[in-house]
Design a protein that fits this description.
The structure is a homodimer. Chain A is an alpha+beta fold. The first copy, chain A, folds into two domains: 144 residues, Winged helix-like DNA-binding domain superfamily/Winged helix DNA-binding domain (Arc Repressor Mutant, subunit A), CATH 1.10.10.10; 222 residues, 3-Layer(aba) Sandwich (Dna Topoisomerase Vi A Subunit, Chain: A, domain 2), CATH 3.40.1360. Chain A has 15 helices and 17 strands. Chain A has a six-stranded mixed β-sheet, sandwiched between helices. In chain A, β2 and β3 form a beta hairpin. The longest helix of chain A is centred in the N-terminal third of the chain and has 26 residues. The radius of gyration of chain A is 24 Å and the shape is globular. Chains A and B meet through α3, β8, β9, β10 and α5 of A and α3, β8, β9, β10 and α5 of B. β10 of chain A pairs antiparallel with β10 of chain B, so a sheet runs across the interface.
């Protein structure tokens, strides 16, 4: 027994080992029965990725994939899957905390074999991490366990401050007592326990520097918010943490990004999930997340809504959209979850004006403007996009 | 008086405002005397960047630059400098916390003027952030204040855990009670107060994912270390924080990076400073920082030293160096601070083998190998590079 390892991790390992034994037992049974060992798992293809209108989530569809040992096209993939499963199983047993990069290295070797005639063959288990990562995803889908539940760690960028206390490992952490710094979210946010929370909503800021500014003037204290930054494209832990705040504590979640298709996509990843990894959405996405801004109607106004920027400010702050932005906007316009009236207005204004804007343009008007007028006013009047 | 703003910030503002008034007073005096207003400041050029052998730091040399209002070549730069100084001064007075991006936006506008003959001219204050950033650096050099002392904030990636307590803002934070998460370092680390520390050394890990792993198995508890990650190329706050731990607390600092020229450069930025920003080195660099690994002699051995990797492991883990890596290695070999015997051996082995290695190769041998054998053994036997 290692005094430095906490109990939640030990319990999580036991659960994962149990699931592995149950799910892979069938393969041993097949071998014992003299059958062709076969793994069946949902297809992780775009064609098998379905947008669930009701739950507002990207999910894997019903199509299954067979992966058999005695099938020339599938035997390498079959063996890769079992090799990776073994490596993860061993890591779980040995109290290891591998990363996906470790798992790639651990499995990487060359298999040498000779034909009965004597001819020598060499085959690498995998050459690139892309291959081993795909196998890890297959194992996630096959076992129904997220990699975090297998105690696989990764780098994390997400930070949080606010009026709440959490338990992580053996510690209780008061997220309102972080000084000018912040709490860096752990890679296994399902093991966090929410102890008490005194907040009215969650504000997720795309940019770390804007998070620092809002934190420093006490935004979350003034407005009873949990303040989070994803520091760009959100990682899995930040997404899961935000989802849990929304689902378990019932806190509304507002996402603040730059006014451009890249910012919209960040919002989309928080809300719907990533298209290539739809199997995780069910656990990581926050379907009720709201886009608070910066919106195109904030910049230019629309109908009765007045813009937050003057003509002069627009002239100084607006950035001309690049071809890649415009291409991205056309793509997003086709996604089902962007086919609401408000989003179509946003995208149309963007395509007409070919203009984008950074959050910093709002802080240039004064940090107090962003903190004490723009954000509270938009939240109060319901001026967000679902 | 704003209850949410802490006293350290108010004091810092007062100090910065005072320095601004003193330094810029001379220009008002010049105008009052009817002279050509002129700013004199050290040249921030490569030619005026000097490696101080004794202090082992990159510093600005004695060359000065004159920037006058009535000089056609310099008047725009002169006006930009005064414009930026005004914006920073106002932000200090108004309790703002701008970022360099904000400062760019705040100053960005078009000046329109007509010749006596009526011809209309337009001139932008600046077009790109590159320009306004250069002006901020000039003001740092001119005032002798780092941007952090002007309460200019920025995004921060650095994280820390360990047996120490600090005061930041109005809070006391126990860095040994962060659960599986970590403390995200604030953008103004000079305002941090070290309260008590029970550690024998500082280990800085380049990679966040490896930091997560070492943290999770309690490395810093077992070995009485302060564990830090820079999450790649270190930002200013992380560098300043590490420097203060070394200088004020006398803790040895070990830097752990990948075994490649990119990792060496990260070490170099911690130790010597960045070549383009040598004026900050005096405050941000840690001249006594030690490169703990992963070294080329760890991989291949050298003389009596046995390698940590077997022949088989080298075959699986080593990555072929790219042309860019080799070019970088030749550049680094010419830097004065890499011209020590140990570094020349490192670079020579790299150039001969054309091989690089990630830290993860060490964790693939087992996280316990990295934590309980490799690192402690190297620290105990003094197997680092100065």
């Amino acid at each position: 027994m290692d005094e430095y390892i906490d109990k939640a991790d030990i319990e999580a390992r036991k659960r994962a080992l149990q699931v592995f034994r149950e799910r892979f037992k069938e393969i041993f049974e097949q071998i014992k029965r003299g059958e062709n060992p076969t793994i069946m798992l949902p297809k992780r293809t775009l064609a098998n990725t379905i947008y669930d209108e009701k739950r507002k989530l990207l999910l894997l569809g019903p199509e299954k994939l067979r992966r058999s040992f005695f099938d020339l096209h599938e035997s390498k993939k079959f063996m890769q899957t079992l090799l990776m499963a073994r490596i993860i199983y061993e890591a779980l047993e040995r109290d290891e905390y591998p990363t996906i990069r470790d798992l790639y290295y651990r499995g990487k070797h060359t298999i040498v074999y000779r034909e009965p005639g004597g001819r020598r063959h060499e085959e690498n288990t995998w050459d690139e991490q892309r291959e081993s990562d795909a196998v890890i995803r297959d194992i996630e889908v096959f076992t129904g366990l997220l990699r975090e539940e297998m105690l696989i760690l990764s780098k994390e960028k997400g930070k949080v401050v606010g009026n709440m206390r959490i338990r992580s490992g053996n510690d209780i952490i008061d997220l309102s007592k972080m000084g000018h710094g912040a709490y860096a979210i752990e890679p296994t946010p399902d093991l966090i326990e929410f102890i008490d929370v005194d907040a009215e909503y969650v504000l997720v800021v795309e940019k770390d520097a804007v998070f620092q500014q809002l934190h420093r003037i006490g935004f979350w204290k003034r407005h009873k918010a949990i303040l989070i930054t994803s520091a760009g494209q959100p990682d899995r832990a930040t997404r899961r943490f935000v989802r849990r705040l929304n689902e378990e504590l019932g806190l509304p979640v507002y996402i603040l990004t730059d006014a451009d298709p890249y910012g919209w996509y960040i919002y989309s990843v928080f809300k719907i999930g990533s298209i290539t990894l739809s199997y995780e959405s069910e656990r990581l996405a926050t379907p009720k997340a709201r886009f608070i801004g910066v919106s195109m109607t904030d910049i230019f106004g629309h109908g009765k809504k007045k813009p937050y920027l003057t003509e002069q400010e627009r002239r100084n702050y607006i950035i001309k959209a690049k071809d890649a932005d415009i291409k991205r906007a056309y793509e997003l316009r086709n996604y089902r979850w962007f086919q609401t009236k408000k989003w179509q207005i946003e995208i149309d204004i963007f395509l007409k004006k070919k203009a984008k804007l950074e959050i910093e343009a709002m802080t240039s008007k004064g940090l107090r403007f962003l903190a004490d007028k723009y954000l509270p006013e938009k939240i109060e009047t319901g001026d967000w996009i679902e």
